[in-house]
From TrEMBL:
Residues 20-37 have a biased composition (Low complexity). Coiled coil: none annotated. GO terms for cellular component: cytosol. The gene is Hsd17b4_2. Gene3D superfamilies: SCP2 sterol-binding domain (3.30.1050.10). This is Peroxisomal multifunctional enzyme type 2. It comes from Aceria tosichella.
Amino acid sequence: MSDPSQKMNPMSLASEDSQQPEQQQGIVRQQQQQHPHQALFDSIPQNGLKCDILFLVIKNRIKEEPEYVKRLRVVFQFNMLKNNQPAATWTCDTKSCIEGDIYKGPPKPGCKADCILTVDDDDWVKIMVGKLNPQRAFMMSKFKIKGNIMLLQKLYALWFELRRKGKTPEIDLIQEIMVEEQLMPGLKSEAMAIEIVQRIVKMPHLAETIDANIQLNILKDTKLMTKYLIGMHPGKKPEFRRLYNALLSNEERKQLSQKLQRSTEATVAPKADIIFTIEDDDLVLVIYGIYKVNTAIETGRLKVEGKFELVDQARALFEQPPIMANL
């Protein structure tokens, strides 16, 4: 016979059963608390596609150039490829949207594309930064067009007019990274670096208040993934470059360095005056103002080496309203 003392108390069973939903809810609440900014993280391009970054730059640029938007009322659909596989679709609409709009995805309901371009991610970036002639690219079958090809020619004509007039300085700063290297999938700081570049070019007063070479080291789960150098000095052209890319082997880094040094525009990277080291996610929170620079330093999220007195200058670059807020 079983020992009566070993029998379970029905009341205790009921009590345990009633606690299970509460425990499950507690686990859910704990998981939610672990990622309070997940929606922000998910909104940031991090799939390694260059077009996602460049379209956001162009989107911000056309908002400031309404006269150019008026000259071309059309809907473009860009089908982007990566390794010959569909990777993303973007729409540029200057017809149904008076001020012009660029968004990820096919044209919205009721809006039909006048011209559809299918092109590789790398090739399209090369075209847009002026490293690949559009006509030559078409002759080489670098892209396919469906619809009115003349509209695409008008688009490129307007874009390169903007480029010639110096209205796209952010492209000049990022083209080395965008053309010569691959972006790192899963790294949000790639988009945040472009956010910093846009602050540099759209907030010229920063160049007059910051006099330093700032190195930014990005970690992912404590592993060093990339290094950026931001050079800002009063009276001089700002500089932005990547110093290290974890995706490249030592030999690839050497070859890339030699290639850049052969370029007439390339110079030896200056020595950093101050070095910031931060985790990828934490950089997003600093850029979006969720963490202030001083708070990030005090809590150990942001480590500083070099001339600590330059922190106040560098803080002016990080603590600005986000330009790419609507990702």
